[in-house]
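Hi,

I'm pasting everything inline rather than attaching a file, because the server keeps stripping attachments. The sequence lines come first, and each chain or strand is labelled.
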Amino acid sequence: MLTEPVFWLAPAGVLAGVVFAVLFYRDMLRQDAGSAQMQRIGGHVQRGAMAYLAQQYRIMLLVFLILAALFATLAFGLDVQSRYLPVLFLAGGLFSALAGYVGMQTATRASVRTAAAARYSLAASLRVAFRSGAVMGLAVVSLGLGNVVAWFLFATTFMPAARGEGAGLVLVTTTGLSFGMGASLQALFARVGGGIYTKAADVGADLVGKLERGIPEDDPRNPAVIADNVGDNVGDVAGMGADLFESYCGSLLAAAALGAAAWSQDPAMQLKAIIAPLAIAGLGILLSVCGVFLVTTKEGAGQKQLLSSLSRGINASAALIVLASAGVLHLLGVANAWGLWGAVVAGLVTGMVVGRATEYATSPGYAPTRKVAAQAEGGAATTLIAGLGTGMQSTAIPVLAVAVGTLLAFLCASGFDLNQLNQGLYGVAIAAVGMLSTLGITLASDAYGPIADNAGGNAEMCELGPEVRERTDALDSLGNTTAATGKGFAIGSAALTALALIASYIEVVRLELLRRGETLLTLDGGRSVPLAEASLQDFMAHYNVTLLNPVVLAAMFIGAMAAFVFSGMTIQAVGRAAAAMVEEVRRQFREDPGILRGDSEPDYARCVEISTLGAQREMIAPALLAVMVPVLTGLLLGVAGVIGLLAGGLAAGFVLAVFLSNAGGAWDNAKKYVEEGHHGGKNSRAHQAAVIGDTVGDPLKDTAGPSLNILVKLMSIVAIVMAGVTVGFSLL
Amino acid sequence: MLTEPVFWLAPAGVLAGVVFAVLFYRDMLRQDAGSAQMQRIGGHVQRGAMAYLAQQYRIMLLVFLILAALFATLAFGLDVQSRYLPVLFLAGGLFSALAGYVGMQTATRASVRTAAAARYSLAASLRVAFRSGAVMGLAVVSLGLGNVVAWFLFATTFMPAARGEGAGLVLVTTTGLSFGMGASLQALFARVGGGIYTKAADVGADLVGKLERGIPEDDPRNPAVIADNVGDNVGDVAGMGADLFESYCGSLLAAAALGAAAWSQDPAMQLKAIIAPLAIAGLGILLSVCGVFLVTTKEGAGQKQLLSSLSRGINASAALIVLASAGVLHLLGVANAWGLWGAVVAGLVTGMVVGRATEYATSPGYAPTRKVAAQAEGGAATTLIAGLGTGMQSTAIPVLAVAVGTLLAFLCASGFDLNQLNQGLYGVAIAAVGMLSTLGITLASDAYGPIADNAGGNAEMCELGPEVRERTDALDSLGNTTAATGKGFAIGSAALTALALIASYIEVVRLELLRRGETLLTLDGGRSVPLAEASLQDFMAHYNVTLLNPVVLAAMFIGAMAAFVFSGMTIQAVGRAAAAMVEEVRRQFREDPGILRGDSEPDYARCVEISTLGAQREMIAPALLAVMVPVLTGLLLGVAGVIGLLAGGLAAGFVLAVFLSNAGGAWDNAKKYVEEGHHGGKNSRAHQAAVIGDTVGDPLKDTAGPSLNILVKLMSIVAIVMAGVTVGFSLL
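And the predicted assembly:
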């Protein structure tokens, strides 16, 4: 590995990522932190956020230790799993948590400094917010790539079974997927818990504050206002970071595993196939750092100029990665370099199309959201009907884009031969890597959103002048637009990565069979092939993984159902947690009339506590579902059932996630559109209807939708990790 | 065929069905039709319903003639289709329309007579309503079974190619599926059009009448009240009838086709396998007639006694079919008679479990709906969040039931051998036949609902005494409970039938290849098998229909997406049509203040016209989607793509349909629960929130949900009919 010059792009990228993350962080800390009051409010938010993280990490630690003990038993006691698995699993959770922690530490400190800078200058304010977002972006990618590289170097040096090439490298790369399971599980907790936290606070603050008492957003008299601001960090920073850490590592690990499997008979090519995704990722980090420096703006810039300066950074990184990856792949001398380059491009283009489609479906600048806003004149019922209808229809383009992107990536990488499953699916994984290669900067533009949002909240609570609020509003609304692109990448990469993980599952099953001493795979009609050389088609034939096998079809139904039940559980959880918050806010207003007059400070901490406890209690059941469904399906229905489950869950979950995110986004922006003065403007009957739509959409777009992305990957990766149990003990 | 004594059960059933339908109809006409005012109101509804049907059938005729001309061109010009196809397609549409017409004629005449009988006696009123529902139930099953039997008799007598057994009978049975396409397309129009009509009228009447003007349900001052009553007939009678006519014929035709294919090498057994579903269906009609006579009640019966008398009829029919079908299958001497009997039982039990689960999820007697009602205290937003969450979670049991039912039916019929795909899938189709065998009486208890509902409407508008309204309310609320069971059968049978249709698709592809002169099917590794003897597994291998083929996966995404987009289109259509209705009702109230005072009669006809035109305009696009998606997928992605599309569409569409139906049902009954006096009762803040929930749920449960059942079958059947084109011209 070390002898391939191109490989060094990966550690170089990791190093650059870490260095610039530290530099940006220290640069941010040096900025003016504003007045004493601003710091006091900022301190509230920061302490709330840290209290939540501490609480969440305590529970996570418990869950992880229990599971690690279980895995250790399976590995050392029953001998059905790799003995590195428990450690890798813990490491995956740990580093994902670390990335989230870094992001939160940065974001909560940055928002007050963004507000402080906004008192004087828009350009300085953008710089603080965006570079702080980049700390998180760079932390995620360098921790992710760094860990993957470290594992490969460690395993190829110290693991006796892995020292040889061929099957050894397949073993190393597939074992690495258990790191992905740790990252996935932590991501699910972060997304679900964060999503419940933020929406319980948001819904609670809005329902009592805005609708019942008629006080504005971010008013310091609202007891839930701090919890709401903490929620933005908990959901959009820590949740999003863990989510994409998981996608990023998953795509790298799946690509490496599929590459190792595709060329298991050709050691030289095998190593190159493993290095290719790592090198592209490293290159992507380097180019993301360059992109960050392109994001600057002049004083007094309008919305258009702000957007173009952000886009400049993102687009430049993407364009450069297209050019540079062609060179890297050729320099590396990987087989079918142009084909793989085609897969990288297919991935990037798919991500952009999904991002644009998301923007079209949810931006107040386009017809769908405006139609939802227009329906607000008919009241809440017609607003909701329109949003649900729009959301469902908006799935068309993202799904088609991913379907076409998958096919193109497969065809390019397989030399346009549908029977070359190994090479083709490696191409699909590489497309996911390509899509996420510039994650350093796309995630920066995502994490920047809540920083700007919180800065606005701080400005409002400290009653800074209207020109300050105007600047933070400009930054905030820009964040909403770039968030659409970020979502596109998150959704698209989840679908591609999940596909690649399903394919990796078969490789793990093969290794498990080999480990159990089997040498032949029996096929239809009494034929059999040597297990080590069996193609993926042979496995499909052996396990009868066709669409007429009733086991596969029944499992597909169950997979699709799991996606719906999981969403229902998270949505209900928000409802319950929000109801508790509503009660508390009503109680505070009732028991201390001084709060509404502005005479006494509300008990912010109590609301923070309610959100924290609600999130903590409610995230257990959905996580259990995600872990238990693939395990039980494996035990009852075997390998064919597991693959059916994953395919059904992916197809339904992916489309459902797009629907939920876009319906929620459309309601959110329809409300903003009405607030801008259309259809009667603020406090009109239409506005009330639009607020109800927004409130209903909140758990859909910020809890259930993003969590589904993780669910489909977590189910795949649980199936992979438990493959030994399925092969050893399944009923069918 | 005629020499098998058991076969004669089928014509006997058809005859009995027709005779008793006519008797029940004439019996109903002889009843007292009430006062002059009641007849005038009844006449409004009847004319409105017939005007709608006339309009719908005109458009349908146009669409059917265009498609038949296209099919004729494909059959006679390009020679890629059977020449009987255009005629069978037209016949399917025609007889489905006829069943709907009979149902509407009966229902609209019966409701006024039910109201008239309710002036004196509950027992007489139940008798009129239920036996009128039975007219529709018996018309659907005898027209359905009669047509299928007639086609088989005709084809085996007159079709030269089909006179021989073996491949000949496969050809006859698969060609018969084009009758199913006609029935499916007509069902889609009836369901989508009817669903849009009824919900536009309902939402329009409620939003302006109830919410804005505060006048009660079914108030004669509401201009949309007649359209609303017409809508109940159009949606729940004609739509439901066409829907189940389609399911019934589809399950019979699919079972016959799979039976013919499974024993194509054994002519004697082949004929028995075709006769088995027909005989079970005939037996089911005979037992349904018996069941109808068991539904009687004593004067002054409470809700419990009413329900138990209805249940007595339905349960007795089901129990008898379980016993009798065992005898029939053994008498017939079909292979593995006990196994097939197991499949029949699996089907019936699955239907019942799905029905009970639907009742649990949506009845105000159980926790889920009560929790939604409790959330109404928090306002519209929390009501909606709770309903969406509940609906999603409620998919668990129905989907598990269908998955288990499918597996059990397959295993029983295949002798517990997962590799006997032919026999096993035949068993799945037989399970669907078993589930629908007592459709004569289950549909009666469905069609009875809108009759009782309309009777209540008539009583309200004619200001009959409170004791009359009490009786019709008792009947109506009973109808809501039995409708849940009916829905369970509709949803469960759709899933099983769709599975059987996907399997039939392969048989059609085989015939098409044979017709094109091919003799061998190439498999992996250069092997090949004689086409006529190739197993379903061989076809799966030849076309690479595995879950790792990117074409299959991409098509699965597209299928899942099609289900969501289709639902979005129908939901949006209701929104648009309802908006037009709201405008019109507001206009009438504004321009003629005498209406609200009760001095002048509103312009009912104008509202009827708006719903009719809205339904007509809006049903084209969803129908086009349902027809074009499988055709285009076939042309672009070939056979593997089509199967992936159908599987993805079925998995996602089935779960989505359950979610939409149950969420809507829960909101509907939560509203009723609040109206009974809970959480503040009528006109409380909670009631307002619950009404909004009910309004949002209307298009979900009465338009999108039921239409999805048809969509998944229609896509399969379009794929079957267009198999010649796919095999001949596809890109991949």
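Residues 620-675 of chain A form the longest helix (56 residues).

If the labels don't parse on your end, tell me and I'll reformat.
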